[in-house]
């Protein structure tokens, strides 16, 4: 069936956890140059606990599962980015309440809700050099692919490509939030570490959708 199953959603969270652990040192390095230096640690810890939760949970309602994972994330890493990711899961989960699988259109709504959760909580907009700059183009690409009638796997691949381009675009953006603001033009030429987190999430989603 051309849907996202519960297993695939669980696999997405687990693959995100694996990627955040794999990329932890790189994220720490990037964040240390422009921020607090703890991004790799918080993402690894947060997704690690979230993956443990979804693997142990028997919840079949995808919306509840996502919201509960978000709450676990928030408790594990009550940092700025931790709170934003938790908000994304809570918003996306609310939109998926009552569903035991996601259609292509449902997946497109999930992607839009995910980035909206972050924008509502963090007040960041496109072009501010944040995670929004990878999540928003990914959501747009997924929605466009869904309207074209493409499969879940192809939609997720398009979304991952959109996120990758978004990361690349941050290299020419000036920071508008956090400690990175003080570095100004020194940020130019390097990718935003938050946007990279967004890309890794869509890399994980694409991987889980191929099954």
Automatic annotation (TrEMBL):
Its UniProt entry gives the catalysed reaction(s) as: dihydroxyacetone + phosphoenolpyruvate = dihydroxyacetone phosphate + pyruvate
Could you say which EC number(s) this protein's record lists? 2.7.1.121
Which controlled-vocabulary keywords does the entry list? Answer: Glycerol metabolism, Kinase, Transferase
Endoplasmic reticulum keyword on record: no
Q: SUPFAM superfamilies, per this entry?
A: DhaL-like
Q: Which InterPro entries match?
A: DhaL_dom, DhaL_dom_sf, Dihydroxyacetone_Kinase
Start and end residues of each DhaL domain: 7-207
Q: Which domain of life is it from?
A: Bacteria
Which principal EC class is assigned to this enzyme? transferase
Pathway it belongs to? Polyol metabolism; glycerol degradation
Gene Ontology biological process terms from the UniProt entry: glycerol catabolic process
Question: Which parts of the chain are coiled coil?
Answer: none
GO CC annotations? cytosol
Give the range the annotation lists for the signal sequence: none
Molecular function as annotated in GO: glycerone kinase activity; phosphoenolpyruvate-glycerone phosphotransferase activity
Q: Which Pfam families match?
A: Dak2
* Assembly and oligomerization: Homodimer. The dihydroxyacetone kinase complex is composed of a homodimer of DhaM, a homodimer of DhaK and the subunit DhaL.
The record describes the protein's role as: ADP-binding subunit of the dihydroxyacetone kinase, which is responsible for the phosphoenolpyruvate (PEP)-dependent phosphorylation of dihydroxyacetone. DhaL-ADP is converted to DhaL-ATP via a phosphoryl group transfer from DhaM and transmits it to dihydroxyacetone binds to DhaK.
Q: What is this protein called?
A: phosphoenolpyruvate--glycerone phosphotransferase
Say which species the protein is native to.
Caproicibacter fermentans
């Amino acid at each position: 069936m051309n849907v996202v199953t519960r297993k695939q959603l669980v696999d997405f969270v687990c693959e995100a956890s694996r990627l955040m652990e794999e990329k932890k040192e790189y994220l720490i390095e990037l964040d240390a140059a422009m921020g607090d230096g703890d991004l790799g640690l918080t993402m690894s810890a947060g997704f690690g606990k979230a993956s443990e939760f979804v693997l142990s949970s028997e919840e079949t309602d995808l919306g509840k599962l996502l919201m509960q994972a978000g709450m676990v994330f928030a408790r594990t890493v009550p940092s700025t980015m931790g709170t934003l990711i938790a908000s994304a899961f809570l918003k996306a989960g609310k939109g998926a309440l009552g569903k035991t699988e996601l259609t292509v259109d449902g997946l497109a709504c999930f992607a839009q809700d995910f980035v909206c959760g972050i924008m509502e909580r963090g007040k960041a907009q496109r072009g501010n050099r944040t995670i929004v700059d990878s999540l928003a183009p990914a959501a747009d690409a997924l929605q466009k692919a869904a309207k074209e009638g493409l499969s879940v796997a192809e939609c997720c691949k398009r979304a991952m490509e959109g996120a990758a381009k978004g990361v690349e675009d941050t290299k020419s953006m000036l920071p508008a939030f956090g400690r990175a603001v003080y570095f100004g033009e020194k940020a130019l030429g390097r990718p935003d570490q938050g946007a990279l987190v967004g890309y890794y999430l869509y890399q994980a989603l694409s991987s889980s959708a191929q099954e």
